[in-house]
Structure formats: C-alpha cells, structure tokens
Design a protein that fits this description.
Distance between the termini: 94 Å
Strand content: under 5%
Structural class: mainly alpha
Number of domains: 2
Shape: elongated
Length: 176
C-alpha cells in the first residue's frame, strides 16, 4: 500500500476546486467581456465629459451604460486584467499614485548621509516615516544600525585610547 501525503492531496483538491467546470467557461467568458465592454464605455464617457477616471466613477457610470442597469463592481474591474489595464491607462489618479510609490525618498537615496538632529520635530519625523514604503523603511533601519555599530566601535576605540593616555600620565607622575 502506497503512503499518502495529506498536504499533497489537499493541494490537488484545491487546484481542482480552482478550475471552473467546463460548462461554465462560456458563462465566465461572457461576464469578462461584459465587464470590459462596460468599463471601456464608462471610461470613454467620463473622458468625453471631462471627469476624472476613478474606479468609483466607473462603477457609477457603468450603471448608466448598462442596458440591464446593473453596472460593474470594483472587484470585477480589479480582477479582470483587460478591464483593469484600460482603467490604469486612462486614470490620472492611478498614474499619480504609482508615481508617488516610485518616487525615491530622500532619506533612502542619500545612503551615505545620516544626519539626525537631537532637537528635531519628532511628529514631523514620524509623519515622514509613515509616508515611506516598507523597503524604504528597511533600508533606513539598516543604515541606522550600521551607523550605530560604527559609533560603538569608535566609542570603544576612544575609551581605550583615553585609558592609555591616563595610564601614561600616571606613569609620568610617578617618575617625577
């Protein structure tokens, strides 16, 4: 008797559940095409009337464009690659959000400089950190840790030098 792997069986079952039944393929394809058609019509109407293209605006406008008056939901736009691509292509708010995400934060771009003022405005600093992405915060944390380690080494070196100078002075005093 061949031993079974319960996790393997559950993975196979999950894959089978994810695949739609063959008789539903046509229905799903029609729904995807309807979503794309309504999104394109809604975006085109929003653009022609000079309105901003947002997902919420598309959802509202799609009800007007839909002969069935059902429109499309936000999840349908986000989950349909073709509809989502059309929205992204024409949405100024989406493009602006992407540009903000891509914009490199000055704290991260200046890796070599780690100037921290002890009298800084902590609330302003907290706000700046909240605006950073997770990779930017990680990079900043690594820079701070590296600077801290270097300062610890420098402090230990200075303490030994100071101790050496102190010993030299005591020896000079004994010789006199």
């Amino acid at each position: 008797m061949k031993p079974t792997n319960p996790s393997l069986e559950s993975d196979q079952e999950m894959n089978e559940l994810k695949q739609p039944h063959p008789w539903l393929q046509k229905h799903y394809q029609e729904k995807r095409e309807r979503t794309v058609r309504l999104v394109k019509a809604s975006v085109d109407q929003l653009l022609s009337s000079g309105q901003t293209v947002t997902i919420e605006a598309i959802c509202r406008k799609s009800i007007e464009c839909d002969p069935e008056r059902r429109g499309v939901k936000k999840s349908a736009i986000l989950e349909n690659p073709e509809a989502h691509a059309y929205y992204r292509q024409h949405s100024t708010s989406y493009k602006a959000a992407q540009a903000r995400k891509r914009k490199d934060h000055p704290l991260v771009s200046a890796v070599g400089s780690l100037r921290i003022d002890s009298n800084r405005n902590v609330e302003r600093t907290r706000y700046r950190y909240m605006q950073m992405t997770k990779p930017q915060i990680i990079e900043r944390l690594l820079m701070v840790e590296q600077a801290y380690a270097e300062l610890e080494q420098q402090q230990a070196r200075l303490q030994f030098e100071w101790l050496g100078l102190k010993l030299q002075r005591t020896e000079v005093k004994r010789e006199k």
